[in-house]
């Protein structure tokens, strides 16, 4: 299934997404796919499955068993695209951010994130803000949530547990990818590290097993 197929499935009961994900993860685990996992600075491994025009599909995997990249700003960010996120297994907290523009008493600076094939350029802006935690939503297996472009939030995995989501994105013209970070952080570049075939297969197999187990009666 591609973006539009998955979006249609999720607008119903979403039951077909589970079997689709098992198949996709199984193919990657067995080396029948050229997908390479990427260590994302927001703490998960990303399996990029589709990028077509303004839309894209990825599987995001959080696990203490997988090495992940570290953020140079913070986990609080906003996308240039609308997000539809479906939890395959585990739990995900979608933590909304309350961001107030201020000149005095700021807690964070806003950074522009410009992505390219070799990584991200993190550029400080003149915009300073005061950050506070807003509404916190908890989603479990089989649940779906949406987030519009430009909404600051963070995705938190409770107690550093195991979780995976299918993330669907559709770009919105005129929007930028932004992150909140320390007031004094300067312009810098970070490289997105691609996993080799062996580690990609290991991550996919771990996710496939967790997904299978989480949907097995009596597990």
Structural class: alpha+beta
- Tell the overall outline: globular
Quote the average pLDDT: 94
Global Rg: 17 Å
Distance between the termini: 28 Å
Major sheet attributes:
7 strands, antiparallel
- By CATH, the architecture is named Sandwich
Approximate helicity band = 10-25%
What name does the CATH topology carry? Jelly Rolls
Outline the secondary-structure elements.
Layout: H1 3-10, H2 15-29, E1 38-39, E2 45-52, E3 55-62, E4 77-78, E5 81-89, E6 92-101, E7 108-116, E8 119-139, E9 144-147, E10 153-156, E11 163-171, E12 178-181, E13 188-190, E14 193-194, H3 197-214
Antiparallel strand pairs: 1-2, 1-14, 2-3, 3-11, 4-12, 5-9, 5-11, 6-8, 6-10, 7-8, 7-12, 8-13
Helix pairs in contact: 2-3
Question: Please, could you describe this protein's structure?
Answer:
Helix 2 (15-29) packs antiparallel against helix 3. Strand 1 (38-39) and strand 2 form a beta hairpin. The chain has 219 residues and is of the alpha+beta class. It is built from three helices and 14 strands. It has a seven-stranded antiparallel β-sheet with strand order 9-5-11-3-2-1-14, covered by helices on one side. Strands 4, 6, 7, 8, 10, 12 and 13 form a seven-stranded antiparallel β-sheet that branches. The two termini are 28 Å apart. Helix content is 19%, strand content 43%. The chain has a single domain (3-214), classed as Jelly Rolls, CATH 2.60.120.10. It has helices at 3-10, 15-29, 197-214, and strands at residues 38-39, 45-52, 55-62, 77-78, 81-89, 92-101, 108-116, 119-139, 144-147, 153-156, 163-171, 178-181, 188-190, 193-194. 31% of the residues are buried.
